[in-house]
């Protein structure tokens, strides 16, 4: 047996001595690189690969595949392709894992042209993509609403050696349901059954979700009856949760409750999502008392209410402007060990802002900024800026929050942020018009500097101020605005 000893070099890297040699084997290098990739340390993984080659150890495809997978995982497809090209220059040819990783990566980035080219290249070298690879492509096409192309691909698979499976068909069915074409979804389902594929519970639930989205609840109820009587795949908790959500969406809470109770009678135990769906339905009807009854029933069944449960109730109380009850639930959340999330804080802040109580809203905002586990998002910042600008007409405070956002390391402003700020000046009817235009123009320039395109609302705001704004296109951002204009001299100057 070979002896093995581990030491560390000056940089802290592990050096494995095998059989008296002072260099790790290719297997040890590969294991080290793979561990770095799994930890998300891609730069260190790349450095380890370079060190390996500098020491004269020739890598193989197994060495390169983790690097390619790691860069695909973080969405850096250009780097993943660069690694692939380096591999090719060394005379190493991609295997099935290499191709599958790259194809899945491009599918997740919605670059279907490159994904299709990789599939063609794969076939040319006699590497037949497996069904997992094809299903990823089908899913990506469906996500992009290219359901027709996805259907053609499945038809092609049926004529090839690689046959689709139930997951492939279910993915395709979801695509047609998402675009609202239930006629085509049923056609695919019929073809699937005729070809000898047995739909599973997930397949039926996808069809059920599509029917509920179309508000075809009678058909949905009939489908559940069909599942119970004729299918081997029996209704599960997801089935009834989907039905409950459909009736809640229609506003028929009594029927939603009956369906919820039916699940219990079929010996199905509702989970957190099931209870939260029913609670949300009662809250949207403005019946917080009924929602609390469901929550108590939830506790009695041994299902602990989570952050989503209490945030749903908080949102309902805020909508009714019952901020005392909303803040009481926040304290309950903290006492029971539940951590309020960004949605909880943002909901409460919106409630206080609508009551024009910016002090209470800012208290919550500061709590978020002090909390390392919950950080304000751009939505939170936009809410606060809009509150100061529109509700309170305090542009000084709105600009202060905007500057805090620009300086924030974790979040950046977007077009809605600038829109809220710029439109705020339009509401200051008693202020000097020239000063308002100058401040609007200043933030427009900051927007340009950050390469953020203006929205239709920003254009409309400038037009309301009597300033002609050109149509937003690419040249707008590649052309300098020029010298800051004086409205008193230029009036309706065209901003370029």
Report on this structure.
With 496 residues, the chain is mostly helical. The chain has a domain at 403-496. It has helices spanning 26-38, 42-54, 61-73, 77-89, 96-108, 112-124, 131-143, 147-158, 166-178, 182-194, 201-213, 217-230, 237-250, 253-265, 272-284, 288-300, 307-319, 323-335, 342-354, 358-370, 378-391, 395-407, 415-426, 433-449, 456-464, 474-478, 487-490; strands spanning 4-8, 14-18. It is globular and about 75 Å long. 36% of the residues are buried.
Give the count of helical stretches: 27
| Distance between the first and last residues' Cα | 76 Å
Radius of gyration, CA atoms, in whole angstroms: 29 Å
Helical proportion?
55-70%
The protein's oligomeric status is single chain
Q: Averaging pLDDT over every residue, what do you get?
A: 86
The amount of beta strand, in percent, is under 5%
Largest beta sheet: what is the strand line-up?
1-2
Stretches where pLDDT is under 50 for at least 5 consecutive residues are: 1-7, 13-21, 471-496
Elements, N to C (H/E): EEHHHHHHHHHHHHHHHHHHHHHHHHHHH
Q: How is the main sheet built?
A: 2 strands, antiparallel
